[in-house]
Amino acid sequence: MRMRKVAVVGAGMTKFVRRAQETGKELSWQAARMALESCDLTLDDVEAVCLGTAPDAFDGVHMKGEYLSDGAGAWRKPYMRSYVGGGTGVFVPIQGWYHIASGLFDVVLVVAEEKMSSYYPHAQAAFLTIFDHTTERPLKPNLLWIFALEMNRYMATYGISKRDIALVSVQHKRSAADHPCALLGDRDITIEDVLNSETLAWPVQRLDVSPVSDGAVALVLAAEHVATRVTDKPVWIEGVGWSLDTCHWTNRDLAYPRYVEHAARMAYEMAGVKEPRKEIHIVEPYDPFDYKALHHLEGLQLAERGQAAQLYIDGVAARDGDMPVCPSGGLLGVGNPIAAAGLMKIAELFWQLRGEAGARQVPGWPRRGLAQAWGDLMQVGTVMIMGR
Amino acid sequence: MTANIREFPGTPLSEKDFAEGKILFNYDELRGAFAWDNGIAIGRYLAGLKDGVILGAHCSTCRKTVVPPRIACEWCFRPMQEYVPLGDTGTVSTFSLCYVTWDVRRVTEPEIPAVIEIDGAAPLCGILHLLGEVDPHKVHIGMRVQAVWRPAAEREGAITDILYFKPLEEV
User: Which of 92-131 (A) contact B at CB < 8 A?
Assistant: First the structure.
């Protein structure tokens, strides 16, 4: 396959907050403007716009892509909203990537927005409609169920303790204390705080979960000949991958995310990564729940099955460890405005690989990073590998 | 360039801002009513439930029996037209003790959702349902359970024709 090189040249984001005064359009514009200003481009330079945003039900706005289009800078441009549930945040830059890699466009603006607070009083009830309307919804399921069922299966299969999993939440929330946009950064949180928090759906407790949030993130992607003129520090997109598992989620083993493995292998092959554990220097796995970070590290082949918790215990996953995991603070710490949260991970790699992450900077000027998101009915994996 | 940016956009609001009337907002309720067709395979499944039987579908190419039934095999994409009656017993493959309802009300007695691998279906092929008649703290993965059916006269061809699954043995 002959594909053009694509770089991320600019990034912007809003604060992640529980409820923002700004509308979704306004948040989108703020992030998009910041991304364009960060690389001294204007909307006139942008040839196409990709938008990522999760279910319409949160905003109560149908055709949310069209609704957000003016804020995202899409007026009179080729524009499309993509959506793969929680995986959207890492899929939407993939969509931007193939727009450019294919030769169709040279500069693409990628915007991810989420406003989960509109669903009042709590976005939880909006999730009811993701379950099958005939065979599952009459049982009155809530979103916590699928996480609790998956977490329990994961813990039981590999004999992992709640205490080991709580360490993930502690590390991410502590890391987030250094992120200027974070909603739940907490430098003083302990394992006991997590283990003593309210039990929502055992084994899931309150501090195992990321917060519902509002926020937006934007990136500017450019083809090689533009990127090298715009910046002396382009961050290249080296590999992308995505994969979907069966929607009959009760017909497969929840202990291992095979779809993440498929997506990761696609991305590794494209990036020429043969030994991911040596060649990936920073990883931002999707962490809406603490066990999910571990689950995904295993699917990404960055830990043996059932062994990811050891990375945290040994300090390998720490910001100054051999393979820092979620130096941003992740969804658990920074917040989880669904599509924006995934794109935040790409923005974090962009800043980290340029050495611009401030207090969060991983030492040693890492060369390559991987971000991953996950979603739908626990079935989609989206992966992007970036390097300088 | 987070290190170079001091002020990020975004204005946080709190519940207090609502209570004190500091902000204006527009409240509305969306109402949607739907009648979903069952389709061919789930239609048979529901008819089976009305008769007190859990039906699966068998693919003779892949030699695999799945539940709930479907008209096409995901593995070989061929039609899957043989419906097979399965047992109404199974094994808990995972469960949760849930203290929050779907509309975020707190409850003291937990609901116990579980994935139950149905006897007669391929390994790992189960359905989502609830457990009942059991001490929540004695539920475990691998527990053998059996469906508790609604009385035949009251069944309406719905997943709720099974009230819940209860342990097969004393726990």
Answer: 120-122, 124-125, 128
